[in-house]
Structure formats: C-alpha cells, structure tokens
Amino acid sequence: MNVRGLLLGFAVCCLTVGVGQAAIPIDSQVVLARYALAIDGVKTPKAVILDYAISQSGPSMIDEHHILYRSGLHVRDETLSVAGSALRQREIHIGTREDHYALTRIAPRADAYGFVFVKALHRGAQIGYLYDAVPLVRQSTGFVVDSMLIDAKSSLPLEIHFSTGSANAHGNGVIGYARMGAYWMPTQASITALIDGKPARETIAFSAYRFPTALPTGTFLSPKPLPQLSLPTF
Description:
- By secondary structure, the protein is mainly beta.
- The chain has three helices and 13 strands.
- The strands form two sheets. Strands 6-5-4-3-13-12-11-10-9-8-7 form an eleven-stranded antiparallel β-sheet. Strands 1-2 form a two-stranded antiparallel ribbon.
- A hairpin with a 3-residue loop joins β10 and β11.
- It is globular.
- It starts with a helix and ends in a 24-residue tail after the last strand.
- 15% of the residues are buried.
C-alpha cells in the first residue's frame, strides 16, 4: 500500500482542549502544522551545564552520576560517583561530540515521516496528542521514530518513542522532553534491548539544567597532570 496515499486519505480527527472552558475543536492536521512551525523555531543553547544519572543492566552493569558541560560540539564530562559512592578524584573526559538527544536531531520531520493521529492523552496537567510515525523510506537498521506525543501548549514533543537495530542488537525506547527555561530539553531516555540475544536496559535521567551565556575557555582544556616527584638518591 502506498504510504503517502494512506496518509493523505486519513480521515481528519477532531480534538478538544480546555479545562473549565468551552471545548475548542482542533483539527489533527492543524496540530501537525503547528508542530512543524514549532520545530523550526526550537532554540539551541549556546552553553549548557547539566547533571545526568545513567543506569544500565545486562551484559554491562553501570550506575553513575555525571555533570556535563557543553558548548556546541565541545563537551566536558565529569564522573561524580559510581554505584552511589562519590569519587575522591573525578574522572574527566574532554572531547567533541554531537548532542545525541537534542530535539532538533531526534524530532521526526514531514520529509521523512508521515503521521497518523491516534488519540489525546493526559500527562499530569498537560494534554498531548499521540501520533504514529510512518517512515516514508523503510529501514531495517538504525534509529527509527515509531510515535510521538505532541504537547498541546507548546506544539513540541513531550515523548518520542523509537526503535533501533544493528547486526547484533535491537531495542525499543523513549525520550522525554520538557521546557527548561527558554529551551526544550531532554529529561529522560530509556531503552530495552537484546544484545547478542541477551536482555539489556539503560536509563538516563537529565536534571539541574543551567544555561550560562558562555563557559570559561579552560572548561574544555585537559587538566594538567600532577608533577612527578623524584626521591633523592643516596
């Protein structure tokens, strides 16, 4: 079946928003149009500092707390604790890498996906519109968005559900987002997978966002090693 034809022929659904006021019907295609505009207007912070906790079970066991500094592609990642025990000396990794969880990188676009409205959902006080995402080009491996929950107020995703696969692993997961100051940032990411036939799970919780106008130049310089002391010879 032609995917484009299926989506163009999809019956328009009516949604309602408003608590304690007259219901206002919103066409599901209008929600998608607002989403497209909102995604194009997403701001990326020039600099950000955040905490994150990572927990992994399966072939590898990880339980760590980090603080991360980012400016563009430049990253300083400091490990604060492992298995609940604070490190006497922080492990520091400095390098360059993309923000794999950035909304602008993850959010599905209309040139790559079609969207089918499923239903309206409540997430606490928030109302979201759930859409299935249908890839216009089928992929057997890699990262594929399966669905997303669009926030009624901001028209940006509250959740993006995905599947991913490679030659020896495949899994399903979800990335949650929320407003942090002037930005829309990830709050949690989790995945359940099979790696070489063995179950594995990983969860990352992001918190304590700070958005300085800039970071000191020394942030991304490798720490100098301690001087080596030589004992006197007799």
